Amino acid sequence: MNATSESIAARLAAQGGMQRLPTPKAELFQLRGFCPDDLCTELIALIDADRRPSTIADDNGDAYFRTSETCDLAAHLSAVERIETMLTQLSSLDPAYGEPLQGQRYAEGQEFKPHTDYFTPGGRDFQKFCTLSGNRTWTFMIYLNDVAAGGATRFRMLDKTFQPEAGKLLCWNNRLPGGGVNAATLHHGMKVRKGVKYVITKWYREKPWRG
Ligand SMILES: O=C(O)CCC(=O)C(=O)O
Ligand SMILES: [Fe+2]
Q1: CB 207 within 8 Å of CB 134
Q2: 69 in contact with ligand 1, CB cutoff 6 A
Q3: Contact 68, 110 (CB under 8 A)
Q4: Is the CB of 9 under 6 A from ligand 1?
Q5: Which tens digit of pLDDT belongs to each residue from 188-208?
Q6: Which of 99, 181, 183, 210 is deepest in the core (most CB within 10 A)?
Q7: Model pTM?
Q8: Which Pfam family is one of this chain's hits (predicted)?
Q9: Cα dist. 202→32, 73, 86, 136 in Å?
């Protein structure tokens, strides 16, 4: 890692408006109004224009585990450059450690069942996804729109559910202070009941991203 987890959390905590979930179980933060409306609108248009069925690691045979669609957001697009710069300034994480930005779109009835963003050590797909760049460290996720009903993100081991809200950032450390994975970061992108839900996700790795 390019910076210690402690220094990242401290930097995040120092940002105006940043709220840390009051728990010793995980480093998890929320920042309302992070992404301006015009940028949310641009990112939604990019996701709508170019999406594919979402995939999962360690497939458990449940075809309904992650029913959303995913969009790979090309780094050269101006809206993508803009949000990437904002994220780098916020976290101070080295962009070289970041995976390419992704968008996720959930139509009514779609969800992403409880999962972790880190790849499970010893899991079937661990080598495939972690050999080059290491495991995931931090997740940054931004809700791009308000959702008419449903679509919350539930962290059941932290007893906390976040409602989608245009521009709101959630970010958390997928690791424990000692470097192991933090199972308490398990989360569920709950079913959208009415409307469509759009988010962007930015994941960081233990080593520079090598595709
Ligand atoms: O859509 C959500 O609320 C969660 C998305 C998520 O967990 C993911 O993309 O890894
Ligand atoms: Fe996730």
Answers
A1: yes
A2: no
A3: yes
A4: no
A5: 999 999 999 999 999 999 999
A6: 181
A7: 0.95
A8: 2OG-FeII_Oxy_3
A9: 17, 10, 12, 10
83 touches 140 (CB < 8 A): no
Q: Whose CA is nearest to atom 6 of ligand 1?
A: 189
Kindly list the structural domains of the chain, giving each domain's residue range(s) and its CATH number in brackets, ordered by start.
5-18+27-205 (2.60.120.620)
Sign of the dihedral defined by the CA atoms of residues 85, 140, 133, 100, in that order: negative
Of 110, 190, 180, 174, which Cα lies nearest the Cα of 140? 174
Buried b (16+ CB within 10 A) or exposed e, 159-172: ebebebebbbbbbb
Q: Residue 36, CB half-sphere, CA atoms under 13 Å: how many?
A: 6
Rg of the Cα trace of the chain?
A: 16
Query: How far does the centroid of ligand 1 lie from the alpha carbon of residue 199, in Å?
Result: 8
Intra-chain end-to-end CA distance of the chain, in Å: 17
For the segment 113-172, what is each residue's pLDDT rounded down to a tens digit? 999 999 999 999 999 999 999 999 999 999 999 999 999 999 999 999 999 999 999 999
With a 6 Å cutoff on the Cβ, whether 187 touches ligand 1 is yes
